[in-house]
Amino acid sequence: MIEAEPGYLDLLRSVARADAVYDRSVTSVFVHLPKTAGSTFGHFLLASFARPFEITWDDLDARVDALRAACRGGGVVPDLAYGHVGWDHIEQLAADPERYRLVTFVRDPVDRAISHYRYCCSPSHPHHERFRKNYPVIDTYIERGTKMWANHMTNAMVGGAASVDECIAKAEKLYAFVGATELYDLSLYAFCTAFGLPFEPATERVNAARDRAPDDVVVTDAHRAALAAGNTIDQGFYEHVVEEYRERAPELFQKIARQAFPRRERRRWLGRLRREA
């Protein structure tokens, strides 16, 4: 059975009450779902972990094989692996929870899909010209690019699910941490507490301005409605994650308030977190 303990719900419930430091000898695998603040979180991870291993998207099979070999080889084991990993590789890694711990972020699926389309149309994307040729307007992206946006997050995370409840059950077995982009600082605090890392809210979002598409990219309410209709599982799972954080936000705020931050910084950070939640 594919299982990783504790799951992300156990983690969130425990860090609201007490510190729950994970064993850093297990390789944490950051499953970077596109346009979910993954670059910002990845930047933080690279500054916090000593032995990172990048899983490059253009050579996934070879890089995942190399990661597995490094973790079995008896040498220096990576404490972090990160990249745009799909379900086929996630399933392989999750089958060995003694070696790998999965973490990820999710985002409002409609906003994520729009951000993804805009990014792929921008010069920041290495294949933007070909993408714009294939999907000249967002209508074509919605009609023909469903694999890129329809329940994309949960299909990648858990291999798909017939219902939101099934998705939650699968994710709880597979993931040690799930954050929410819209509650980024609160999510980061939970992650830092679990891993015994110093917490400081992000001062800026990495890559946040790089999805600026040409001015002719127009998104209407009808487009948003079509994207919402194709993201019912993603939407349900995202709302579940956000609700879990918001339910525990008062306890997390109390923990933050008791930490030895300078008073002015503590007030500023608590203010940001409360506005976020």
CATH architecture: 3-Layer(aba) Sandwich
Strand content: 5-15%
Q: Largest sheet, order of strands side by side?
A: 2-3-1-4-5
Average pLDDT works out at: 87
Unreliable stretches: none
SS element count, helices: 14
Number of strands: 5
Q: Judging from the principal axes of the Cα atoms, what is the shape?
A: globular
CA radius of gyration is 19 Å
Helix content: 40-55%
SSE class? alpha/beta
Give me a quick take on this structure:
Helices cover 55% and strands 9% of the residues. The two termini are 35 Å apart. The protein has one domain: P-loop containing nucleotide triphosphate hydrolases (Rossmann fold, 3-Layer(aba) Sandwich), CATH 3.40.50.
Task: List key phrases describing it.
single chain; 277 residues; alpha/beta; Rossmann fold; five-stranded parallel beta sheet
Note down, in words, how this protein is organized.
- By secondary structure, the protein is α/β, with parallel strands linked by helices.
- It has a single domain (8-276), classed as P-loop containing nucleotide triphosphate hydrolases (Rossmann fold, 3-Layer(aba) Sandwich).
- It is 55% helix and 9% strand.
- The protein is built from 14 helices and 5 strands.
- It has a 5-stranded parallel sheet, with helices on both faces.
- Strand 2 (52-55), helix 3 and strand 3 (80-83) form a beta-alpha-beta unit.
- The longest helix has 27 residues, at 232-258.
- The radius of gyration is 19 Å and the shape is globular.
- The two termini are 35 Å apart.
- 37% of the residues are buried.
- The model has no long low-confidence stretch (mean pLDDT 87).
